[in-house]
Amino acid sequence: MARNIVGLVATFGCLLLLVSCSKQAPTTTSATPPALVGTELDARVPTALSQLPLINSAGQHVTLGSFKGRLVVVSDLLTLCQETCAIGTASMLQAARTVDRAGLGSKVEFLSITIDPRRDDTRHLAGYQKLFGRLPNWELLTGSAADVRQLWDTLGVWRHTVSVSPPYPHDWLTGRPLTFDIQHSDDLIFIDAHEHFRFEIDGPGTVPGTADIPARIYAFMDALGHRNVTNPSPGGWSAGQVVKVLRWLLDVGAP
To answer: Quick check: 246 and 197 in contact, CB under 8 A?
Structure first.
């Protein structure tokens, strides 16, 4: 479904998996374990993308380059998504907590970046973050419409705005009717401490149940979203799979 970052890597002249790009990126990890679900990458993050201005939930200006020196996990987010985003967020945070318990939390930064800067203002991001539980290494980001569009266009994350028919769902934060939705792909993009793309997982997250999804957000989700929790589609990724990728990229071996 996604026109993903694999195309971006090819644009920068790297052949995935079969050909090493050692001149562009230092190779500090072993060969990709066969158990990893996703695509290995090897290309430098373009400077224009690294320095693109974004805004966190506290209204502070940051860039992807602000996190150089840490392994960064970028995910696309829509706080008003009723089908998949809350599940992916919950699964990613399960992985974040697992990594933190292993004493590796300071080495990894998780960035959830909106695809809907028009409605995902800092108030929505802060409220979403509070409901899921704040973590010191989890940032929710937005930005200008032009900058957010440039980010996701560059990374190849698919989005499509569609009208919603009455009766309209209502914003979980403001109560306002939602007259449109944004269909989108679900991607996790891993950037190493040297600002190189290293791995991508394409597909929805999965969770073992509703315990990690805030009640307010679960009530906002629609019937399809609830079904995605209890009966996820094949090809979805788990928190355990994310942890395996992180440990491989951190070169600390299996959990």
So the answer is: no
| Distance of alpha carbon 210 from alpha carbon 90, whole angstroms | 9
* pTM for this predicted structure: 0.89
Cis geometry, peptide bond prior to residue 167 (ω within 30 degrees of 0): yes
Rounded Cα gap, residues 128 and 221, in angstroms: 14
Which amino acid, residue 59? Answer: G
The pair of structure tokens assigned to 14 is 């790297």
H-type alpha helices, 4-144: 5-11, 47-50, 85-101, 122-132
Tokens found for residue 172: 């979980």
pLDDT tens for 41-85 read 999 999 999 999 999 999 999 999 999 999 999 999 999 999 999
Cα–Cα distance, 189 to 198 (Å, whole number): 8
Residue 8 CA: distances (Å) to CA of 13, 16, 135, 200 = 9, 11, 30, 12
